[in-house]
Amino acid sequence: MHTVRLALKLAWERGSLTYRNRSGAWNRELRTFAVTANAHHGLDRDTATVRLVEAYFDRYGPASLRDATWWSGLAQAAVVNALDRLGRPLTAALTPWSTAALYLFRDRFEEFTRTGTKASPAQVDFLAHEDVALKAYAQTRVRYLGGVGERAAFNQIGEALPAVLVDGRVVGTWSWDARRRAVRCAYHRTGAPPLDREAIRAAAERVTAGLRRGYDDNRVNRAGDPEAPQLIPSATP
In which residue ranges of the chain is CATH 1.10.10.10 found? Predict the structure, then answer.
């Protein structure tokens, strides 16, 4: 089994296999793998690159070119070429959190301008472990770190911690208390913005209710070992 696990890990890292979690509960896994070419419709490299770069700036802009290269693993020239090929107008923005030029699509900029910002109530978000919102940036991470250090949002090997954000800034972390079946919060003492505890409490209650619905008390997969990998001939969406 150890050899099988290593082979699957290597094939997944090289992109030959795709991973799907077939579990119906968030606190356990049912690991399945399929041949990537069979499970997903293939794209030529140029088309795939353009779509990836567009998805990044559409979801995470404004962002720097260095942010995009770090997130995508592409060379900067490939990112710039993809944006040129895309032909979707860009806007360059200067922000308080970075001296680098940041880019977002013009239609997104206009959407943000029309929407504006609300003074209250506070916007509270509970982000999952390794949440893509925290992993989307490298050069400009300070946008959500504010006055706290990177270890407030990332562990020593660079994994994003389950974070509590208030108005887009990290104020603490959260965890699941299995005994109480509830969310537990821990707040940073320095550098974090003022806490709106009422808004955080309300958000924690909503997250708790949602996690309780998807929680498996048995934590045992009826098909067998929940950690045992399975290789399937194909995977359907």
Answer: 45-115
DSSP-assigned beta bridge partners for residue 183 = 176
d(CA 128, CA 175): 9
Two structure tokens written together for 174: 């959260």
Question: Is residue 76 within 8 Å of 69, Cβ to Cβ?
Answer: yes
Q: 45-115 adopts what CATH topology?
A: Arc Repressor Mutant, subunit A (1.10.10)
CA dist 108 and 166 (Å) reads 22
**φ, ψ (nearest 5 deg) of residue 101:** -70, 130
Tokens of 14: 């090289």
The answer to whether residues 205 and 234 touch, using CB atoms and an 8 Å cutoff, is no
Q: What is the residue type of 187?
A: Y
Quote the pTM value: 0.74
pLDDT category, 193, cuts 50, 70, 90?
low
Length of the chain as a residue count = 237
Q: What pLDDT does residue 236 have? A: 37
Report residue 59 as tokens.
């979801």
